[in-house]
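lol ok so funny story. i was supposed to be doing the assay writeup but got distracted and ended up predicting the structure for this chain instead. priorities right. anyway since i did it might as well share w the group, maybe its usefull for someone
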Amino acid sequence: MLWVKALHVIFVVSWFASLLYLPRLFVYHCEVTDEAGHQRFATMERKLYGMGLIAMLGTWGFGLWLLLLEPGLLQAHWLHAKLTLVLLLSGYQGWLKAQVRKFAARQNTRSHRFWRFANEVPALFLVAIVILVIVKPF
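and the output, tada:
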């Protein structure tokens, strides 16, 4: 059980690293004007997205494994809230995929200011999820 929890946390940390850094790359990509810079950022974004996707799948896989080991957790209201946030974050991950494609195709229409704001979204989710898991307010 502890090994499964440890692996779950490792994948969560990796997933959040990608969620926090990918929009930051978009901020910098908005300011690039040369072809070499565009290609460099498009490659970095694509690779980071791929690593983040693997981390998300690992997070889900080990999280579901934990629920199989302790099905009683499904009765906890804090877990319902956490799973809702994780579902929303998974949707955010999918939205980022579309943005990676737009940047690669030079179809981004958003400013660096927008991406600076988008960069904060996963941090808010992280705070809420950690509080739910540690404090269990419900």
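The first helix runs from residue 2 to 30. The two ends are 24 Å apart (CA to CA).
back to the writeup now i swear
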